[in-house]
Amino acid sequence: MIENIAIVRLQADSPHARTVAGWTHDAWGHLHPDTSAAEYRRAFYAQCGEGGVPSVFVAMHGASPVGTASLVADDMSIRRELTPWLASVFVLPEWRGHGVASRLVQRVEAEALAHGIHHFHLYTPDQQALYRRLGWEDREELTYRGESVTVMSRRLSPRAP
Hints:
three-stranded antiparallel sheet; 4 helices; about 25% helix
């Protein structure tokens, strides 16, 4: 199943951009209660960069998106000194448990390395085990916008030729 997944860069004008923006709004829009769905979508489209920070990637099964992950400059308003961030890792429920999230995270890591980024961050309320398996380390526990979360960091080493 995972062998049929392609990880591709999402462009703001992609026919899938609105769908993926909707997923992320549904999953994390509650963290931005003063932001309308249209404003959230515009901000999401702005993250669909050409390379480096920001970038959005989508896991595609044929012509259908099944997951997403992003590399962004800022994902936590109370930790603006930390940059950049792995953000918005989301996989459709029926595709979870098949390695799609891991592939998305690895693609974001490769993007970071390709652009000279060797250290970045994420926060999660409930997926610590996944990220630890992928080499991420706990940095701190805190409450962010009403949720208990773990801020995690990853230091990447350039791959040997």
